[in-house]
Amino acid sequence: MTSRNLLPRKRLAIVAHDNRKAELMDWAHDNIAMLARHELYGTGTTGKMLEEALNLPVIRLLSGPLGGDQQIGAMIAEERVDMLIFFWDPMAAQPHDPDIKALLRLSVVWNIPMACNRATADFLLSSPFMAGDYEARQTDYSTYIKRKV
Ligand SMILES: O=C(CO)COP(=O)(O)O
Asked: By its UniProt entry, which InterPro entries does this protein fall under (predicted)?
């Protein structure tokens, strides 16, 4: 058994807007061996495409415009997601822009490693975080929030 087999399973949420789905699929293909080691979540269409393209199980949530971004945001707040890959579209307005902003906001609040482009996604997958020696939940915001509850 190689040391890579000992990697802890992370919970990865993966999302892409329509104009960036091809780029995401390309990235996912290039990283299929790494992705296969983790638990994958995706918004409706992204999740379906990933599942079919990679032949890996993906836990599918609602499509983004129907609430999928909000579902992932809730999972982040409940500490049920470890990392977000979100290829959002910087060139086209989305009908559910408030949901997108809310998801990006919660990722910052909860100090979730988040990649919005391929370069950062590559850095995240090759980072020590994937080997488990980074405590993502240590954030001033979560300390603040927990004190308030
Ligand atoms: O709209 C999305 C994220 O904001 C993604 O939704 P789909 O994966 O269903 O296309």
From this structure: Methylgl_synth (IPR004363), Methylglyoxal_synth_AS (IPR018148), MGS-like_dom (IPR011607), MGS-like_dom_sf (IPR036914)
